[in-house]
Design a protein that fits this description.
about 170 residues; seven-stranded mixed β-sheet; about 30% helix
């Protein structure tokens, strides 16, 4: 921080004081994520078909995404300061309603693991959950867990693998 002047820090603080807790402008979020640990919630949707095949639903990032352009990923969200304290209900709702557009699920999200790791945009503390979904997804791409490609963000492959292991134990495969 030796290159930063006290006046620059004061200006940054004055600007940040004007923001309300919750969603940050993307450019600001991107820089804060680079500097600070970002808490995220990831949900791996899983389904066992009559054939025994297990599928998941992946979403595609925009081609102009500054970190993972065009890559496939599991649905997730950043935990926000404006979320209800003591619960992840708001984060779950954003994922299930906004990202998965009302996907029908058989139960509440089940905890898989927590991952404290480095990704391209910075450090994350990811709380990974799975849900068993029913019916057909209205949004996203349904993919067999045996056919995941290198188009999936590498950390997401880890999330999926761990979720599948626990899912199989829960459904007695």
């Amino acid at each position: 921080m030796s290159n930063i002047q006290a006046s620059e820090i004061k200006t940054a603080v004055e600007i940040l004081e004007k923001l309300e807790p919750g969603v940050l402008p993307f450019e600001l979020f991107h820089q804060i994520a680079r500097l600070y640990v970002t808490p995220i919630i990831e949900i791996v949707p899983l389904k066992k078909h009559a054939s025994g095949e297990i599928t998941t639903i992946l979403l595609q990032r925009d081609d102009d995404d500054p970190v993972w352009p065009g890559m496939m990923h599991t649905p997730g969200t950043v935990v926000r300061a404006s979320d209800t304290e003591g619960t992840f209900v708001d984060a779950f709702a954003r994922i299930l309603e906004d990202e998965l557009r009302g996907l029908e699920v058989a139960q509440n999200p089940q905890l898989v693991s927590y991952e404290f790791h480095q990704v391209q945009r910075g450090r994350e503390l990811a709380l990974v959950f799975f849900v068993e979904y029913v019916g057909q997804p209205k949004y996203g791409t349904e993919v067999s867990i045996n056919e995941l490609s290198d188009e999936v963000i590498d950390t997401q492959l880890e999330f999926i693998g761990k979720a599948v292991d626990i899912f199989k134990k829960n459904i007695k495969i």
